[in-house]
Specification:
Low-confidence stretches: none
Shape: globular
Mean pLDDT: 89
Number of strands: 7
Order of helices and strands: EHEHEHEHEHHEEH
Largest sheet: 3 strands, parallel
Radius of gyration: 18 Å
Structural class: alpha/beta
Strand order of the largest sheet: 3-4-5
Strand content: 15-25%
Oligomer: single chain
Distance between the termini: 40 Å
Number of helices: 7
Helix content: 25-40%
């Protein structure tokens, strides 16, 4: 089974995993899955992936990078650090157009609806939202390429999603509460609003807070 390392929001810290392997109290995983931010890719010069995936490109951290192109190029570094295939979520913001400007034989574009996932024997995704269906399509495509089989497909489809990422907190006195407090970009917030509107409630109340990162607020 893959070992999921939490450099993002799921799994265990990479340092804990390495420490466990060194001191012989943790088995070496056949695969290690890392979630990497642009910050981490800036200095991870010896990164060597068998497979990688890019889910989305949209304006973010413009208070850190000199331009949007600089930010996108920092994320795109992972293409050159991947040995076999790089899976792209083509509906992911600016990702499709950016990939067309930077062609590479390792790139595999994925654009699937829920009905397309039947290819993997999956009829439903537990996590809410079209964006989670897109994430599942990427994960299923990689699992399929690795030959992990139907058990892995089933586990991916049953993943309920992560805390604070369009998390369904349930219905209280007729009001459905969605916790999307991990949204840190304009696009992710827009997607949450779009997906919430699809839940067919009469009224949507959105509570928004955070820090300005020189993002295009007029879009929101």
């Amino acid at each position: 089974f893959p070992v999921t390392i939490r450099w993002g929001n799921l799994g265990v810290p990479l340092a804990d995993y390495v420490n466990g392997v060194l001191f012989k109290n943790r088995a070496v995983g056949k695969y290690i899955a890392l979630e990497l931010s642009s910050y981490q890719l800036e200095n991870f010069h010896n990164l060597n992936c068998d497979y990688s995936a890019i889910t989305y490109l949209s304006p973010n951290h413009l208070d850190r990078y000199i331009s949007l192109e600089d930010y996108y190029q920092t994320k795109w570094k992972i293409v050159g650090q991947t040995k076999h295939k790089v899976f792209l979520n083509l509906p992911g913001g600016d990702l499709k157009n950016f990939s067309l400007k930077h062609p590479n034989k390792k790139l595999i574009g994925i654009e699937m609806r829920l009905s397309d996932l039947r290819t993997f024997g999956v009829s439903n995704i537990s996590a809410l939202g079209e964006h989670n269906t897109e994430n599942a399509a990427l994960a299923l495509s990689i699992a399929n390429d690795l030959g992990l089989g139907i058990f892995a497909f089933k586990k991916i489809s049953e993943l309920p999603g992560l805390p604070h990422r369009f998390e369904n907190l349930g219905v209280i006195k007729g009001v459905q509460f969605i916790n999307d407090s991990k949204s840190t970009t304009i696009d992710s917030t827009k997607n949450a609003i779009y997906e919430s509107n699809k839940l067919n409630h009469r009224k949507l109340v959105v509570l928004i807070g955070g820090r300005d990162k020189d993002l295009p607020w007029h879009d929101l």
